[in-house]
Records
---
Amino acid sequence: MQTQSPRAGGTTAQVSPGPLEEIDQLMQKRLEDEQRSADRSAEITKERSQFSEEFSEVCDAHVRPVMEAILERLRCSGGGGVIEERPEDLARMQDHRFILWMSLEGEIVGTPRLDRHPYLQLDAEVAKRAVTVSEGDMWAGHGGNRSGPVTEWQLSEISTTKVTEEILAILRRSFQ
């Protein structure tokens, strides 16, 4: 079979469809790969949202009440502090975070600092489906020597007792 060449006005031999069928296969594979990628992305987004929601529920039920009670007790004893919550922000690649900053003398003035204020920080690590626990026991540049990540907790492990014990351990080291 011959066809008219659009450029030269002459005839050229047409290639049989067999070898060109690979193009169809390659295009179909690309479409399938894109669909798998879109499906996986939707699944990851759903898992991320579900874990973040579960973290919020655990914090509302077990973390925030303990942090608020400890702040109240610190204030009654001449100390102070603040609870910071940073919601998840996918645009900035930031996970959900809860931090209790504590002061052993009066309220915190200005921005809390790792080398000045004892703290307990919980970060929802969605990719790991775990909560990274960071803590610091420095008080006004003195005290313990711990600052940063110390362990990971599963959501199912978080209880008011566990959070209370962790904060009391931080305060004990801060007074040393």
---
Amino acid sequence: MKKIQDVDVFASGRRNLSEREREQLLQEKHEQQKAAGYQQLVELCALGEYEAAKQLANRNPNWGYEVVDGVVSERIDLSLID
């Protein structure tokens, strides 16, 4: 750890990310959130809390899941089907 007198308060703390790196980080974050959301939905269903799982899935449509008859599945976007 640096001593306080060795810290340059005007120096940038981190490097700037390229557009590609930024997109990759956002994609990774989205995948992590989706996996964590899936786990939460599965756990709620395992506890028999189907209505709570449905509500959670509906509040987080970016996860891409829905709960039907106590089963977590990928949400199908019918607007993409021609």
---
Amino acid sequence: MDNLDSIKYKRGQRVRILVGLEEGKIATGTIRILNDPKEDPGHQIGVELDEPVRYGHSLEGELPREVVDPKTHVTVGRGWWTLPQYIEPL
């Protein structure tokens, strides 16, 4: 929807995700989706990560489908939903 008046981020912008990933990992990536926080407060910013992570996904079909690790049965993908307070520009 790309209507985020209160957020300073733009599609295509490179960012660092500071929290939310397992074990305190920090990831970098590119913003692909911006949703209106009033309409979808939990999925405000969709980031395509540089590297796949456990529990990553396809950003609701915007990225290639996530895969399931055959050993752990956990999804691994390059998409991550986050909130503006949990990222910073690169």
